[in-house]
Amino acid sequence: MRKFILLALAACLSVSLHAQKFAYVDSKYILSHVPEYQQAQQEINKLSIQWQKEIEMKYESVARLETSLQAEKVLLTEEMRKQREQEIDQKRQEAKDLQKQRFGVEGDLFKRREELIKPIQDQIYEAIQEVASTSGLMVVFDKANHSNMLYTNPKQDVSDKVLKKMGLKPGEILDDSEKGEEGSDDQPKDGETKDQKGNNNNRNNEKPKDK
Length: 211
Hints:
Shape: rod-shaped
Structural class: mainly alpha
Strand order of the largest sheet: 1-2
Low-confidence stretches: 1-19, 176-186, 193-211
Distance between the termini: 46 Å
Number of helices: 6
Largest sheet: 2 strands, parallel
Strand content: under 5%
Order of helices and strands: HEHHHHEH
Mean pLDDT: 79
């Protein structure tokens, strides 16, 4: 009886799925066509580099103070040594606080990215809604954000329809939008300079030509 119920449910689910229309988009491909997105990424990357240098300068200042203290330690009184150590601790904490302010969760870089990217995401979402409505689609997946999508039929890809709905021409992929996109993830950890970090792997934004 239990097997019969399971088989019946599976059959009903199969009929239900076949009755619905599914499609997918590739958000990376769509974003690679949006000039505003490229401009936003350039500004974010510029800020990331600028703020990272600012933080590195503070850590380098701390390192110089530590080196100086070690060289002069034998000449200092206990009180002078403690005072210098407190100064170093304060400078180090200032560097950490600035790093958190710039690159921490909901920090300056996060907020600026939200300001620049969210309007573009909203525009894409509205275009997807319109395409789904006019095409009678029940569900639209995002290929770029679903690593478990093992196979996708190009015939079900409505990315170009979304681009046309946004007034953009499919196929004209702009400069690689992924370079430096995750700037905040590649920031140095406490006391670590950029040169000590490995470079992020470039991502491939190419779209299959078969539509």
